[in-house]
Amino acid sequence: MRPFIACLTATSLAAFAVTAATGAASADIAQSKVVSANPVSNTPNVLDGTVRAIAVVGNLVVVGGNFEQVREAGSGKKTLKRHNLFAYDIRNGKISTAFVPKVDGTVHALQVGTGAWVYLAGTFKTVNGRKTGTVAALKTTTNQVHTGFKPNVNYRVTTMVRRGSHLYIGGSFTKAGGKSRGAVARVDALTGVADNAFNLSVTKPRSGTLKVYKLAVDPADSRLVINGTFTEVNGKRRPQIAMINLGKKPALSTWATESYAAACNLNAFDTYMRGMDFSPDGKYFTVVTTGGPYGPTTLCDSAARWESSRTGTGQKPTWVNWTGGDTLLSTAVTGAAVYVGGHQRWLDNPYGRDRPGPGAVSRPGIAALNPTTGKALSWNPTRTLGHGVEALVASPKGLLVGSDTDQLGHEYHGRVGMFPLS
């Protein structure tokens, strides 16, 4: 493998450069209806650890997290060693034998590249024995590390989004792309070099270490939303969430809210912000949280919709759905639904305190919300709770789910599954 990688030709690098610069943005997937509550039967099983990230590269589903063993669906299948990353064919569930990377730490985020490439980010330092830092690019057809991509990020990356030639990363790092960058950066998707125009000052953590926990970018690459432990961005008050207007000269938006300023359970969570996602048309985004059963006076343990085009301080959510004290970790917006995952027991439960209050509905571990009203839809496949759903990813074929448990839709599905559109 090492000689092959070392001999990466100038021609192949040039091809990567063209596709990275001109390829279509990895825009969010729109779906015309809610997915089936019956998972497909052929997804492989992850036998240990947690699935934390999923990306669909052509017909390959790339799965990342912290795990060591995987197995195809069905009886009598052989257990395979896979080090925190593997891929399978979405059409038949066959685990790839060409893509067998060795990643020496947790994969927290995956993003589709162009062609057969995929970006990975997390807490690892090497991939296939090569020093990469915590962000790298791999070719899924050959297992090849992209040696020309050198973001050189010096610490943990927890979130990542690619839009065309831009790769946005967030975490608790202090250097990225050859420059000083605190917790958030935009690097070139081909070279990994940090964008000189994108240099946010993210400061004053409410608790613990300064970090950007999650970020979301609209499909047009015009708005970025970040969340995390910070309370100021570019010297302006932004408690745990901020919007950035993008383009050639990114700037902090006037959009601001005090809705996430409440402490919630500060002793347990340095930040209670969790997943975020833009709608496929970019008109709104959703935010899910943990934080404790504090009810409708805060946005702890809730899902909320926010309108993208609004400006100014004092912003309020369009709607909020509370779990009544259980964590939501992830969200995926498809237009037909706002999917949420965590270890929640109920939704529509603003007055519950670790119990179902008036109007509460049972939605164990995974649910779909009405994008207009925020109320829980009837879709209720259920899953075993555990820590919760870390990854919800929409694809043209359905909704992919990654977690730490093995029961999904009343069936055995080891830590990864998919609800089909048909």
TrEMBL record:
UniProt key word Signal: yes
Known Pfam families for this protein? DUF5122
Keyword Signal on this protein?
yes
Q: What start and end residues bound the annotated signal peptide?
A: 1-20
Q: Which UniProt keywords are given for this protein, alphabetically ordered?
A: Signal
Official protein name in the record: PKD domain containing protein
* Naturally occurring in which organism (per UniProt): Actinomadura meridiana
